[in-house]
Amino acid sequence: MQMTAFEWCSLLNGKLEGNGNNVITHPAKIEEAGEGAISFIANLKYASFAYTTHASALIVHSDAALDGEIVPALIRVDNPSLAFTRVLENFNSPYKGLNGIEHPVFIHPSASIGENVYIGAFSYIGENVKIEKNVKVFPQTYIGEESHISQGTILFPGVKIYKNSLIGSDCIIHAGAVIGSDGFGFVPQPDGTFIKVPQLGNVVVEDNVEIGANTTVDRATMGSTIIRSGVKIDNLVQIAHNVEVGEHTAIAAQTGISGSTKIGKHCMIGGQAGIVGHIQIEDGARINAQSGVSKTIKEKNKAVTGSPAFDYTSSLRAQALFRNLPDMAKRLNEVEKKIEALKEKRSMLINDL
């Protein structure tokens, strides 16, 4: 892929400074960039690289003050990080050209396969599955009966989609993810054994969702487990039955969300957070890494931390007090000794009277 600095500037709606005819062939880190590379500076602490880089084009902030001789053409934009993300998206297109069906695969005669679909070897497409146009199904993927994969979605190798799952448009599901496995439902018996509760629901994943490698999303007992549009889920996340995750929420690795909990929109959940079942997390909540959320978060845009999790600022104050406990205990002992000494002195004075 080759474009000039001028063409990139036009695509990014930027303002060009320098030679617009510089040919761009690839993106690169600014400290490693050579001829033909396009890079960026989002943080001014890296501004010195602008004078030493051998990149052919450099994306910088509209207001960045850069004095001195600079080799690359400058593309000035309001948000360099976003602009460079757009650059990476344009270079990250090797899958768009994939199409056709490799062999061996199993495709049920009742399955519907759209245009420009790629299905990798050793995949299984079940009864009445519908796969829309431009979907990419990488090798060793399983798609169970009655499932629907909407257009432009990518299923990387080894993804398992259980029956009746609905996957939206332009989703990315990474290797080893399991969508629609049974929820963890068992009824204890008097003799200490368990009876399994049938899991009759499904999973609904809306549009533009990304699900990380080896993440699991359980099907609902009844109804649906729902991942709303724009949600981004990291690797190794467990989402239990009947959970609902609101639009554009981000969940970091090793988080566990228990059954029937409702997560609001635009929430940010740090790694290894644990969230109990049957509670509600309001929109915009920020849950710090390794927090244990055991109660409903009723306030929008609330930040919590700790286990059990509570208000972020209060938690920091509590942590500061906790660190000072040894010194506080020492001072308290000294005060108690002084009080005892004063009591003794008082008793002696009384006796002298």
Describe what you observe in this structure.
- The chain is an alpha/beta fold.
- It is built from four helices and 40 strands.
- The strands form six sheets. The chain has a twelve-stranded mixed β-sheet.
- The mean pLDDT is 93.
In spatial order, strands of the major sheet run 8-11-14-17-20-25-28-31-34-37-39-40
Overall radius of gyration = 29 Å
* Amino-to-carboxy terminus distance: 103 Å
Overall pLDDT: 93
Q: Which percent bin holds the helix content?
A: 10-25%
> Which sheet architecture does the biggest sheet show?
12 strands, mixed
Instruction: Report the β-strand fraction as a percent range.
Output: 25-35%
Determine the structural class based on helices, strands and strand pairing: alpha/beta
Q: Number of helical segments?
A: 4
Task: Give the overall shape, derived from the CA principal axes.
Answer: flat
pLDDT < 50 stretches: none
Secondary structure: number of strands: 40
